[in-house]
Amino acid sequence: MFVRKKRFVGRRSSSGESSILWATHVTDGYAYNQLVKITKLFLILAVVVSLPIVGYALKPLQVTLFRVDPEVYDALLRNQSATVYVAVRGDTPLNRKILKTWHFGDLHIYKTVVSSTDELYSLTDRKNVISIYGDKTLRHALYLNGIKAEEYPFKERDIDNEFHRATGPWIGRGVTVAIIDSGIDYTHPDFFDDDGKSIIKVLVSLFYISESTGEYIFWEPYKNGTMNDLLNCDMLLWEKYGEPAFLDINGHGTHVAGIIAGRGHASNGKFMGIAPGVQLVVVKAFNKDGVADMDMCLEALEWVYNNTEKYDIEILNISWGANFASDGNDPLSLAVDELSEEKGVWVFAAAGNEGNIPTTIVVPAVARKAFAVGAWDPYYDKLASFSSLGPTIDMRMKPDLVVAGVMIVSCKSQFADFPDEYEVNTYYVALSGTSMATPVASGIAAAFIEYFRYWHGRDPSVDDFIRWVKENSRHIDFIKDFITGWGIPKAPHG
């Protein structure tokens, strides 16, 4: 017998009124069967959609609980061996073949290979093992796509100096800033002082090793030869091996250096660095494509660690990074922390260009002792659309500050190419990214060091700088937040 009956299911409110929740037709169980099918389909779709979300959410949890890179687990579960970097505190033998070792005080980072989860667990069980991470590719935090040059009057304004009021007497005299990047165009007029001497203390190349010493080659201007001698050497290496030792053929390192220390000679003082009184230590670790692996970055950080006193390095600029799950215990972040704590170097690192998405601060900006620098659009007075947001996966508030990072005009390497719409002239180009914001912050810090020494007769501590930033920044929020940190600092100008 065919029966069709309309059935209402309702509930009674506290006032006694009835409210219909839903209505359905029941036809000899037909509707019920359809409901079961729809429910099954919905559950299948829910599982399919939720699996990657759950997997993404579990990665930070995996890192914070077990201190193991999820990508290492993934490789081993696919029966693939994995090259890993094991961070260890103190002298803890790993009892296995070590491919390479880096030392930062009592922090040791070992490069080795694991072939199974059992091998991995044997490492995690060892005393004083802090974390285990796989190899990573580090890239410049440069952002070009999406920036329309015609919307920015960059040729008329030295926007970073203007925005941060870096027009006072404090220009970073007596301060040395180290830059780990793609080298520098040391022939650029803005990297010479008023007497025609290079402002570079030393250039270091991680691409070539001295046959006599077995160490990375370096060049101290006027000690090892003239700048023309250096250029001739670089040209020979470039022609023979495809990569000069010190010269910047990518353009990123030159631009970063100019934002910090450019003297403005090629523009009659129009486009200058934030702290044009500093001297530079340039470590070339990134190739012509703006890329470096974990080995190169650890080598660069170790070189700075070992040579801080020799070259009186006070600030380190890191305009690069990689976006992977880390609570600050990955090898690169730990090395940055040691450099800060043991050597007293202030480290400024690019927050990343992952967009205004929470928990996207890159490594090593997630380091506890690093100043993670986000980008602000000084032309339209807003957060740059590409600038990464915090907090870190262990819920620390980052970035620490935001500064000008959109269409910043700085020195152009004559050996690198850029889109025509971003070029000002032969000597200058406008670029964007937290790569550009970071040297602005480094320059402000250098100016602050000179300012503080003058008024207080001593070197400032990092706490002195933090206190000054808190008191002299334009606060976007009344507390430190995960979007703009402490806010937008101004350069000391009084």
Distance between the termini: 95 Å
CATH level-4 homologous superfamily of the largest domain: Peptidase S8/S53 domain
CATH-level-2 architecture of the largest domain: 3-Layer(aba) Sandwich
Quick one: how many beta strands? 22
Structural class: alpha/beta
Main sheet properties: 9 strands, mixed
Estimated share of beta-strand residues: 15-25%
**CATH domain topology of the largest domain:** Rossmann fold
Give the overall shape. globular
What's the domain count? 3
The number of helical segments is 10
What would the average pLDDT be, to the nearest integer?
90
Outline the low-pLDDT stretches: 1-27, 47-58
Helix content: 25-40%
Radius of gyration: 27 Å
Short description:
With 494 residues, this protein is of the alpha/beta class.
Could you please describe the fold and organization of this structure?
With 494 residues, the chain is α/β, with parallel strands linked by helices. It has 3 domains: 5-58, no CATH class; 67-135, 2-Layer Sandwich (Alpha-Beta Plaits), CATH 3.30.70; 138-489, Peptidase S8/S53 domain (Rossmann fold, 3-Layer(aba) Sandwich), CATH 3.40.50.200. Helices cover 30% and strands 23% of the residues. The protein has 10 helices and 22 strands. The protein has helices at residues 30-66, 70-77, 117-124, 159-163, 227-241, 252-261, 294-311, 331-343, 434-456, 462-472; strands at 5-12, 18-26, 82-89, 100-104, 107-114, 129-134, 137-140, 176-181, 200-209, 216-219, 279-284, 291-293, 315-318, 320-321, 346-350, 371-377, 382-383, 401-404, 408-411, 428-431, 473-474, 488-489. Strands 8, 9, 10, 11, 13, 15, 16, 17 and 18 form a 9-stranded mixed β-sheet that branches. It is globular and about 65 Å long. Mean pLDDT is 90; it is low at 1-27 and 47-58.
